[in-house]
Amino acid sequence: MDTTFARYDMGTAAEEELKGLGTGFQVIRRTVPGVKDLPVACKRLIEEESCDLAMALGMLGPHAVDKQTALVADLGLQGVQLATNTPILGVFVYEEEAKDEDELAWLAARRTREHARNAYNMLFRPETLRQNAGTGQREGFDDVGPLETTSGKLS
Amino acid sequence: MDTTFARYDMGTAAEEELKGLGTGFQVIRRTVPGVKDLPVACKRLIEEESCDLAMALGMLGPHAVDKQTALVADLGLQGVQLATNTPILGVFVYEEEAKDEDELAWLAARRTREHARNAYNMLFRPETLRQNAGTGQREGFDDVGPLETTSGKLS
Amino acid sequence: MDTTFARYDMGTAAEEELKGLGTGFQVIRRTVPGVKDLPVACKRLIEEESCDLAMALGMLGPHAVDKQTALVADLGLQGVQLATNTPILGVFVYEEEAKDEDELAWLAARRTREHARNAYNMLFRPETLRQNAGTGQREGFDDVGPLETTSGKLS
Amino acid sequence: MDTTFARYDMGTAAEEELKGLGTGFQVIRRTVPGVKDLPVACKRLIEEESCDLAMALGMLGPHAVDKQTALVADLGLQGVQLATNTPILGVFVYEEEAKDEDELAWLAARRTREHARNAYNMLFRPETLRQNAGTGQREGFDDVGPLETTSGKLS
Amino acid sequence: MDTTFARYDMGTAAEEELKGLGTGFQVIRRTVPGVKDLPVACKRLIEEESCDLAMALGMLGPHAVDKQTALVADLGLQGVQLATNTPILGVFVYEEEAKDEDELAWLAARRTREHARNAYNMLFRPETLRQNAGTGQREGFDDVGPLETTSGKLS
User: Which of E2, E8, E92, E114 should one mutate to test binding to chain A, selecting the residue with the greatest count of A CBs within 10 A?
Assistant: First the structure.
């Protein structure tokens, strides 16, 4: 699922990445106007097309109202996940995360592709996620990595 | 669905635009006092009048409390969409988006009309939305257009 | 539905106004401690007493926490409306809207009465709301009126 | 329902107050770690123990994140009330409401006890709440009282 | 349930602590990318694996958007708890709570372990929670302890 609002074709990046990861699964794509239109569209994909997982791809402007838009979309996506018992990976890029338009395009591409890998792993390679538990993975910019370890045992 | 609170007759603009786009569909209009009254009214239109899509048209004042009002209305609209598996295009105009009253009227008209086209495309021309994926479409003010492309391929 | 928290007897104002508008309908009143207690009480009125519409009347203090209280109450009211397919007019008055206690009392009275008329119109005179679509109606303070018109037609 | 996070034994205050108000009803108490654990615990009390009303007692720290915690808990409590058609009185005390620790303890005690009376009245004496409609009742600190009256009649 | 986003292996700390507390119960662990992916994953654990309680472990960055992410995740967790009548202990650590990376690791470990004890007590030793009601327990940093007592009796 992607949007006409976004300034980068995140849907094509996701499709490309997923196709490079394996076969034996099918990708269905839909495009809606903006991120608040994603939840119900994801729900229909899951219920009517029997998708096992959805990716919700969107880009958001730099204003306070855009944060609220993201909140509404995100809460809608939670509602869909709980109603369908199906995971949805929300991949949102905020304009102010990048220092210029080139970095914004790069960030949208990278985050989408890294989350496409997460999607693949959630369905087919859950042990990969397990191995990366608590290791500070980030999607888009560099991973921050794990902290020095400490057991923190209670007395 | 529109409101008596709004200062521009968004409902008539939507009706006019939709009628110009084609025939073979029916437009049902209802008016409620304010944007928080839109969700349940949309739900009844969808459930009792079998609408395939709803447009929720509203205008919001410039105060912090108006942002909260929009949030409540927007979350209500999410709830309706998920309960009915039917898309609702929320078309909200904020008073502070425009520099004066003339621009505000123009913005309300344009955003409504462009979303009326989105509504039409969602139902009858989904391929049009697909072609515009990631192209920076905006409703009301000018489209911002797509970013320079980059593949962002992962190693 | 009104509250013991409010400093003006909004429930009596609503009852009085409704009784002046017509006969042939019945008004049932309940009082709860605060605005967050309104949603479930409205739901029971609607479900157990078969009300066709509810008014939720409350007054809110001037602090940030009061905004959050209003948000919780408002979201609860949305939940009730969507669960029952029944409209609820939320009539909330914020202490800081008025310049002094006299104006606050006046505002609580007027907003309640104007929303009582909205309630009546929603049930019995929907064409009145339709005629006022986009005309900048306000409840309490003066209406702001419609903007100069513009068609905003798309090319 | 109370929490181990709170710094005052609000549950005991509520039990004591309720027992002083009458007999013929039963009080069931549960303790959870923090306020976000209250909603599901209240839901189980209502559904599994057939409670007619629940009190959710909690204390909150002075930081921004504590406001968000209260919001989450409050929205959860709304969800429970609407799912069960049973009222829950949320009794939350914010650390910054009191000028020192002594006042905080006093406030927690008083607010809990006054809401215990509200709980009693909601179940057994609804006419008491009705008589106090719009009279500016506050739980904890002093009541603020009603405003000077005005009819605010519409022309 | 833990995440690949976190920088400390909270899941292993929880498992270790729970295993030290007793036998006669089984711990099932899953890892997802980020905190917003926890709710649906918890729901599936509860519904498909018949878990009696879930712990949702996550770490959050220091930015405003991270607060919103936590809110979305938290509201999702409320939704799951109410849909399943099963408690979920959310264990979230915010980067800015700690003065440096060492303390952050320590805090993640301690909070996880103390909440693992809460989880154990909720299921097997509810009287322990009851004894600690209103005693100012904190998870991670030191308990703040109870306030001086006062009865706050109403006249």
Answer: E8
Provide the pairing of β-strand E88-94 with E54-60.
parallel
Q: Is B55 in CB contact (< 8 Å) with chain C?
A: no
Q: Helix, strand, coil proportions of chain D in percent (round to 5)? A: 50, 10, 35
How many interchain CB pairs under 8 A, D with E?
134
CA distance E37 to E50: 19
Nearest to C106 among D126, D138, D150 (CB): D150
Query: What subunits touch chain A, counting only 3 or more CB pairs under 8 A?
Result: B, E
Chain C, 93 to 152: residues with Cβ < 8 Å from chain D are 101-102, 104-106, 108-110, 112-114, 117
Distance of CA A150 to the CA centre of its chain: 31
Question: Which of chain C's residues have a Cβ under 8 Å away from the Cβ of B2?
Answer: 133-134
pLDDT tens over chain E, length 155 residues: 889 889 999 999 999 999 999 888 999 999 999 999 999 999 999 999 999 999 999 999 988 889 999 999 999 999 999 999 999 999 999 999 999 999 999 999 999 999 999 999 999 999 999 999 999 999 988 899 999 877 778 87
DSSP assignment string, D125-152: -HHHHHHTTTS---SSS----PPPP---
Q: What is the 3-state secondary structure (H, E, C) of chain E?
A: CEECCCCCCHHHHHHHHHHHHCCCCCCCCCEECCHHHHHHHHHHHHHHCCCCCEEEEEEECCCHHHHHHHHHHHHHHHHHHHHHCCCEEEEEEEHHHCCCHHHHHHHHHHHHHHHHHHHHHHHHCHHHHHHCCCCCCCCCCCCCCCCCCCCCCCC
CA distance C116 to C54: 10
In this complex, is the C-beta atom of D63 within 8 Å of any C-beta atom belonging to chain C? no
Residue type, A59: M
> Considering only CA atoms, which of A80, A83, A89 is closest in space to residue A56?
A89
**Closest alpha carbon within chain E to D108:** E152
In a 3-state reduction of DSSP, which class is residue D25? coil
In this complex, which of C44, C101, C110 lies closest to D152 when CB atoms are compared?
C110
Which of B83, B84, B72 lies closest to B38, judged by CA?
B72
Q: Which chain D positions have a beta carbon within 8 Å of E112's beta carbon?
A: none
Comparing CB atoms, the residue among D75, D85, D87 nearest residue C75 is D75
Q: What is the pLDDT of residues E43-61, one digit of tens each?
A: 999 999 999 999 999 999 9
Tokens 């929720």 correspond to: B56
Q: Terminal CA-to-CA distance of chain C, rounded, Å?
A: 49
pLDDT digits (tens, 9 = 90+) for E128-140: 999 999 999 999 8
Determine, for residues E132 and D71 on separate chains, whether the beta-carbon distance falls below 8 Å. no
Please give the average pLDDT of every successive group of 10 residues along chain B, which has 155 residues. 90 95 92 97 96 96 92 98 98 94 95 96 95 92 86 78
Q: What is the 3-state secondary structure (H, E, C) of chain B?
A: CEECCCCCCHHHHHHHHHHHHCCCCCCCCCEECCHHHHHHHHHHHHHHCCCCCEEEEEEECCCHHHHHHHHHHHHHHHHHHHHHCCCEEEEEEEHHHCCCHHHHHHHHHHHHHHHHHHHHHHHHCHHHHHHCCCCCCCCCCCCCCCCCCCCCCCC
Chains touching D (at least 3 CB pairs under 8 A) are C, E
Q: What does residue A2 show for φ and ψ, rounded to 5 degrees?
A: -135, -175
Q: Which domains does chain A have, with CATH numbers?
A: 2-131 (3.40.50.960)
Answer for the pair B17, B112: CB distance below 8 angstroms, yes or no. yes
Pairwise CB contact (< 8 Å): A72 & B71: yes
Pairing of strands C54-60, C88-94: parallel
